[in-house]
Amino acid sequence: MQTSRRIFLKQGAMALIATGIAPAFLRDTVFADETKTNRKRKILICIFQRGAVDGLSLVVPHGDPFYYQHRSVGGIALPRTGAEGVLDVDGMFGFHPALAPLKTIYDAGHLAAIQAVGSPNATRSHFDAQDFMESAVMEKSVREGWLARTLKHCPQDAATLRGQKDGQNGAFRGVAMTSQVPRSFQGFPDALAIPDLKTFDVRGAAMASGTRGASDGFESLYDGAVGDVLHGTGQETFEALKQLREITATRYLPANKARYPGGKFGESLKQIAQLIKADVGLEIAFAESGGWDTHANQGASRGSLARRFSEFGSGVAALYSDLGDLMSDVVILTMSEFGRTVRQNGNNGTDHGHGTCFLVLGANVNGGKVLGQWPGLAPEQLYENRDLAVTTDFRDVFSEIAHKQMGVRDLKAVFPGYDAGPENFCGILKT
After folding, report:
1. Of 114, 150, 251, 284, whose CA is between 20 and 30 Å from 414?
2. How far apart are CA 254 and CA 269, in angstroms?
3. Coarse DSSP helix, strand, coil percentages of the chain, rounded to the nearest 5 percent
4. Taking the model in full, what pTM does it have?
5. Complete domains list, the chain, with CATH
């Protein structure tokens, strides 16, 4: 009886595949044996700061003589000195004091900031700007996200699985720690949205990949049947799924005394570290952080923005510390759809702006530097007399990481309509 149950599982899996309704992870499992390799896998972690972070408070241009003319101490300007002052890095720029954990990584040479980065489209709509950034195309006719195209053109996944399209050979290649697949992953059918690993299972994998009905009958046959039917990489994939089902936040012990902040953001980053350490084939992970739309009562060293920075900085630093030596193959990229106005408004906040600041972390990062061309804050240097001008197109940041970290060769396929190439790279990564 037990043997027939296991054979039915195998045959049932094949039947689902034959009908074309099998979840992608199930197809991958059955066909994975012949494609197993021992190559080291490069990983990209993208963190989207939704709501338009104030890049002038993230990495403060305190050495620009016009900074304190546009923003007042006692308002939203960060003091140059003192216990609550800017954490200076080079006399011109410094981190917000709530981001002290990130400055430590910067000082170690594993974090670079890119100032005055943003979109060539100057829309002040959150929805449109996020759409442009996540698609990396300046018009809305292209439905695929840039991370989806990166995965499709990643040469480390060029092996073709029997019966599958090129490049789709991993159950967990693209994972978003969100309730829905983000725009960045749209167009990659195997991308998974996993809001919480503790509730992720075979059924959850199917729902996340849009094949809910196909898994319902299969899940009841799963337990106790893996080891005797599937072998090699196929068995490892199912064992990874089984392992993820058993993982809980309280049972996972971060390495190197890393301490993640409480709440959804910290939990998402911790679970990304779990996925990487579980070695389930993760290549691109996506997380997001909200609350950056600071129209009123933004604060300076203290206040609402400082609290957001504290959570953000401690979370990213914990992820970096938790991954430890694995950061030699990992790059963490933070982004936001646009920045804030240079001048504070009448509500002690900032309105929708243009240029902002990205961060990049990793052992291969050309760190300990603030990259990008600084446009200046003099009135005549501001965009539309109100915003930090954009001097680095965000696609130059994305394309360098896609090329150097993920090995993408055909950058025009990933960034259609844009002249992406080494001549526009910012020098973010060493190799």
Report:
1. 114
2. 11
3. 40, 15, 45
4. 0.84
5. 37-210+257-424 (3.40.720)
d(CA 295, CA 271): 32
Two tokens, residue 131: 């759409």
Asked if residue 232 lies in contact with residue 33, where contact means CB atoms within 8 angstroms, the answer is yes
Instruction: Report the C-alpha gap between 196 and 184 in whole angstroms.
Output: 19
By residue count, the chain amounts to 431
How distant is the alpha carbon of residue 358 from its chain centre? Answer: 12
**Which of these, 400, 397, 391, 399, lies nearest to 416 by C-alpha position?**
399
| Cβ neighbour number for residue 52 with a 10 Å cutoff | 25
Please, which residues bridge with residue 333 across strands?
46, 360
Structure confidence by residue, pLDDT tens digits, 208-264: 655 444 334 433 433 443 333 333 344 545 555 665 666 544 578 999 999 999 999
- Distance (Å, whole) CA 270 – CA 262: 10
Going along 102-225, which residue ranges are E strands?
111-118, 174-176, 192-193
pLDDT digits (tens, 9 = 90+) for 264-285: 999 999 999 999 998 888 999 9
The contacts of residue 11 (CB under 8 Å, 6+ apart) are none
Distance, CA of 158 to CA of 141 (rounded, Å): 27
